[in-house]
Amino acid sequence: MEAAQGINNECVFHTLREENLHRITEIMCFSLLSPVSSLCSRSQSRSYPTDRGETRKQPLQRAILSLYKVSITRYPKSAGLQSAACKECVRSVLDHLSGEPFQEFLNSMYFDRFLQWKWLERQPVTKNTFRQYRVLGKGGFGEVCACQVRATGKMYACKRLEKKRIKKRKGESMALNEKQILEKVNSQFVVNLAYAYETKDALCLVLTIMNGGDLKFHIYNMGNPGFEEERALFYAAEILCGLEDLHRENTVYRDLKPENILLDDYGHIRISDLGLAVKIPEGESIRGRVGTVGYMAPEVLNNQRYTLSPDYWGLGCLIYEMIAGQSPFRGRKEKVKREEVDRRVLETEEVYSHKFSEEAKSICKMLLTKDVKQRLGCQGEGATEVKRHPFFKSMNFKRLEAGMLDPPFVPDPRAVYCKDVLDIEQFSTVKGVNLDQTDDDFYSKFSTGSVSIPWQNEMIETECFKELNVFGPNGTISPDLNKSYPPEPPKKGLLQRIFKRQHQNNSKSSPNSKASLNHHLNSNHISVAQKFLFPLLVVLMESFGHSPMSDDGIADHMEEARF
After folding, report:
1. Are residues 321 and 241 in the same domain?
2. Is 535 contained in some domain?
3. Which of 319, 410, 522, 554 could form a Cys-Cys staple with 267, CB 3.0–4.6 A?
4. What confidence tens digit (pLDDT) does each residue in 471-496 have?
5. SS in 3 state form for 5-26?
6. How do residues 303-320 score in pLDDT, each as one tens digit?
């Protein structure tokens, strides 16, 4: 209990008992470099085996403890041993681990296994990597459908960006920008990119699947419009955490609206569709009149320069809409021109009904302040300012970020929270657009395969890592890691056996036929599928009583057909 309290108090370790301090340093050691943790995992004996059968004492834990006790004396307890001493300890641990322990790791069987996993992670990704399922919706450049990784069974959402549609709308930079931002942001409150690949007609982003529908559906299609304040508060807190993760990467989202907030199977939300997000250079500001009508901040409408401020305006719009059941500057189902909505954003004040508590009304007013300098979240501390508002007084953000809070609503697994397939509009065919070499250069930047952290999480969640990451008895080296162990010959399947038997029969009647067929099979312009079809066609013809053609004839016909 004391250890947990110490961790929650930002590394205030001086209140801990000696045995708890030992445990904390052990955890620090193991978490800093996961491959080394495999070497150090036998903490009771404080020793570990090498791949040569030797056993060495592990003095690292004792060294960290000594280092910690030295560093603690440099900072007065009145300062709480804040992060300064902790950072010094961590830095020294990293310096130590990067020396002899890391060199030992490089010479161990654990590093060889690590290389095997990295090789597997970097295998080419194509459409054949996945099974494709029903269409879930549509985006600006194509459809979004459910898909499943064949090897692991993991479900994802595949966002298809049609190549010709991208080129026609000059959306190359927008598509690549979204992909690169998704690749860098690893947040439980933002959809994660797991794979990026291309097909003949489309670029594909494989993302976290969110089966619970979007906030717009839940606000307007699940009874009376709007949510109870408790539910709105929970979603607002998770959205704020997602924005904080994006802002930590100097990325402004710029398109916060109910349609872009998705629920997963458990009721947690993630921010999706980062097509309008942009990374802001350090110390600079940007200009751009982009977003959705009714949700764009005044500085965006006025084409002024800004940094992260539009996202806090969007958060205010979203909190208002979740509670009121309508957007702050347009009534539900009200037909009004874009110019009128923009005028209301710039000139009018929003109206608050009895649904708003004083805290909810206050945070909406402060987030929807038209003067950027006075807006909540834009006065130097970002998301921390917003978290301190009384509206969030009941929210424990540390527990929320740790996934320890239960959502107020859990989607029904039997329900479908999206449109029927027949109700989703189909894209028209793009005509008059030709793809060339410059497009291929862009596609190569986009199609980079798997993304490390989501791929590794997939291996763990589907238990592939548990099943495959095995070693020999008592921690000895396994045959697949033993470089002196002869590799097993590849197992021959049914088609290979049929192929071999057929050639043995043919060689008796025609000595030169086997060499002739092998020449065709080994030629560059015959595909693997064609090679397997040769013996199969022969066997089928014989089974129906037909006289098979010569091997040369089969090869010639296959070449003409160009299967």
Report:
1. yes
2. yes
3. 410
4. 888 888 888 888 777 777 766 666 66
5. HHHHCCCCHHHCCHHHHHHHHH
6. 999 999 999 999 999 999
**Was 168 annotated as part of a binding site?**
yes
Q: What's the rounded Cα separation, in Å, for the pair 278 and 550? A: 63
Between CA 89 and CA 91 the distance in angstroms is 5
pLDDT tens digits for range 119-160: 999 999 999 999 999 888 776 677 889 999 999 999 999 999
Query: Please, which pLDDT band fits residue 33 given cuts at 50, 70 and 90?
Result: very low
**Encoding tokens for residue 187?**
């947040």
Claim to verify: residue 195 and residue 222 sit in the same structural domain: no
Q: Quick one: average pLDDT of 402-416?
A: 88
In a shared domain, residues 302 and 365: yes
Give the pLDDT of residue 89. 75
Residues 277 and 354 in one domain: yes
Q: Which of 293, 121, 280, 264 is nearest to 190 (CA)?
A: 264
DSSP H helices in 73-140: 83-97, 100-106, 109-121
pTM of the entire predicted model: 0.71
Contact predicate 68/89, CB 8 Å: yes
Backbone angles phi, psi at 285, to 5 degrees: -130, 165
> Which CATH number is 143's domain given?
3.30.200.20
Residue 230 maps to a domain: yes
One-letter amino acid at 196 equals A
Sort 479 into a burial class: Cβ within 10 Å, 0-12 / 13-18 / 19+: exposed
Single-letter code of the amino acid located at 319? I
Mapped onto helix, strand or coil, the DSSP state of residue 422 is: helix
Q: Could you tell me the CATH number of the domain that includes residue 383? A: 1.10.510.10
Of 57-66, 269-278, 378-387, 447-456, which range is least confident? 57-66
Mean pLDDT of 18-29: 53
Looking at residue 74, its pLDDT comes to 55
User: Are 88 and 27 in the same domain?
Assistant: yes
Q: How far apart are alpha carbons 29 and 35 in whole angstroms?
A: 11
Q: Residue 2's pLDDT band (boundaries 50, 70, 90)?
A: very low
pLDDT value of position 513: 47
* 130 and 205 co-located in one domain: yes
Range of the domain at 236: 215-416
* In a shared domain, residues 195 and 243: no
At residue 138, the pLDDT reads: 73
> Has residue 485 been placed in a domain?
no
Nearest to 274 by CA among 164, 212, 191, 206: 191
* CA distance to 34, 35, 59, 92, 117, per residue, from 98 (Å): 13, 12, 15, 10, 21
Q: Which residues have a catalytic role annotated?
A: 255
- Quick one: 294 and 343 in the same domain? yes
Number of domains in the chain: 4
| Ramachandran angles phi, psi of 98, nearest 5° | -75, -5
